[in-house]
Specification:
This protein is α/β, with parallel strands linked by helices. It is built from seven helices and eleven strands.
Length: 226
């Protein structure tokens, strides 16, 4: 496949965490971010890791690289105002990679198997994202709060990270990006590239509230117990 780089995006504001910076919150014995980076450090297919943090957290992040001996982490760089700005910074700091794995640092319960599965799927088609089928019935609602449509549930999947792309595809998507996108695949889809969905994990939660911290810790401790 060639060289595979990973971008771990953790430059958000943690607005719903009640004043706690979630990526450095201690869960299951170490900072939340460390759980995510540890997985990429262990992942056989990953050659390089770039961590993207807010400017205020750069010093702490660089200390963590030394403390946890993350030999694959080549750069800890400053993020931008939006998530997509942070990913763009990460892309610019990768070196000679033919493939890119993008992961939210706020998803600490990622696994090596989930990363490797994404790389394998993307190698066949150029772009692949982890996702899980939606369990609830979804309603499309008007600005006036009336139901406009109930799409078939079997066609709906909730996107997660990791999202894996051939470098030239994701780089083009970011170079041509217009407007706001909540995930990387949207920008790739806007250029009419096909994106493969592969099974994510219910455990691969994104931490956005204090309650999520408790759930993530329970998941990680369960894994530690084997």
């Amino acid at each position: 496949m060639g060289r595979v780089g990973a971008i771990i995006v953790a430059a958000g504001k943690s607005r719903r965490m009640g004043g706690v910076d979630k990526v450095f919150a201690k869960i299951a014995g170490k900072p939340l971010l460390a759980h995510a980076v540890d997985v990429f450090q262990k992942c056989p297919s990953i050659d390089q890791v770039v961590i993207v943090l807010s400017e205020d957290n750069l010093t702490v992040g660089r200390r963590m690289v030394e403390e946890y001996h993350w030999s694959k982490v080549s750069v800890v760089c400053r993020g931008g105002a939006r998530r997509q700005d942070s990913v763009r910074e990460g892309l610019e700091n990768l070196s000679g990679c033919q493939w890119v794995v993008i992961h939210d640092g706020a998803r600490p319960c990622i696994s090596v198997d989930l990363v490797e599965a994404g790389i394998k799927e993307a190698s066949q088609c150029g772009a692949a994202i982890a996702a899980i089928p939606v369990a609830d019935t979804i309603k499309v609602v008007s600005p006036g709060s009336f139901v406009e449509e109930t799409p078939p549930r079997q066609t709906l999947w909730a996107a997660q990270t990791p999202q894996v792309f051939r470098f030239d595809i994701i780089n083009e998507a970011y170079q041509k990006a217009q407007g706001y996108a909540t995930d990387d695949a949207t920008l790739v889809e806007n250029l009419n590239y096909q994106v493969k969905v592969y099974p994510g994990s219910d455990a691969n939660i994104k931490v956005t509230t204090p309650d999520d911290l408790l759930l993530a810790e329970a998941i990680l401790k369960s894994r530690q117990r084997g």
